[in-house]
Design brief:
Number of strands: 0
Distance between the termini: 69 Å
Structural class: mainly alpha
Radius of gyration: 32 Å
Number of helices: 10
Shape: rod-shaped
Length: 239
């Protein structure tokens, strides 16, 4: 029942999971609880406990995005009449999804229920379960790729907005420094310059926040007036 192709899916999903923050994982009901509610159905026999153990064992089954897609997939597949007990159909579908995700399986045909096993084999004769795994795996990869692309676009947009904000801040800081330095050049001993100190301190704090080289700007404005620049830095206590 194992499918070696699922290793490719495991790698893809793990890469996505590791990019998530902890709050994006384990912050919701487990997959089986959600499915029980969505289907108004329970897994047969003791498979609920086994499924819980399975989920606890494999973190890939704890990812919110994997849970979201798997729930949607199984709910949709349960609409199909496979001619078998609905609880068993639920079990088989969940097991095939788990197999595709982990290359391990929840249902292995060894629970002593011969009717269930015969139903599984009869459907497997038409490659039903291989087709199910393939459909699930392809759909999940497409879903995660879509989420990754949306996240990339959002990140890119945030970066652009940050760059624009940084550019605007730099232009503003340039203007402020230019005006303050002009006043200082005209009257370096004027007591009225004291009033500028709080504003200059705020400008310095903002410059540091935006990683803005304020000293380079000051030096550029003063040019060759090195001594006057030193007086300015000392007067405004700029380190």
């Amino acid at each position: 029942m194992k499918n070696n192709k699922s290793y490719l899916l495991i790698a893809a999903v793990l890469a996505f999971i590791f990019a998530l923050t902890p709050t994006q994982m384990l912050a919701q009901e487990n997959l089986v609880d959600r499915l029980n509610k969505a289907l108004n159905l329970k897994l047969p026999d003791n498979y609920y406990a086994e499924a819980r153990k399975f989920i606890e064992k494999y973190k890939i089954c704890q990812s919110k995005n994997v849970i979201d897609y798997t729930e949607k997939f199984i709910v949709e597949q349960m609409k199909e009449d496979m001619g078998i007990n609905k609880q068993d159909q639920y079990l088989f579908l969940l097991s095939e999804c788990f197999t595709e995700l982990t290359n391990d399986y929840l249902y292995y045909g060894g629970d002593g229920n011969d009717k269930r096993y015969d139903d599984y084999l009869s459907l497997n004769e038409d490659n039903k379960w291989e087709q199910c795994r393939e459909k699930y795996g392809n759909g999940l990869k497409a879903y995660l790729n879509q989420l990754s692309e949306e996240a990339r676009k959002q990140s890119e947009e945030a970066r652009k907005q940050s760059e624009e904000a940084r550019k605007e801040a730099q232009e503003t800081l340039n203007q402020i420094f230019d005006e303050v330095i002009k006043c200082f050049k005209l009257a370096p001993n004027d007591k009225r310059l004291e009033a500028f100190k709080p504003n200059v301190n705020k400008v310095i704090e903002t410059s540091k926040r935006y990683d803005f080289d304020y000293k380079a700007v000051i030096h550029k404005i003063f040019g060759d007036e090195t001594e006057l620049e030193k007086e300015f830095l000392k007067y405004f206590e700029i380190e």
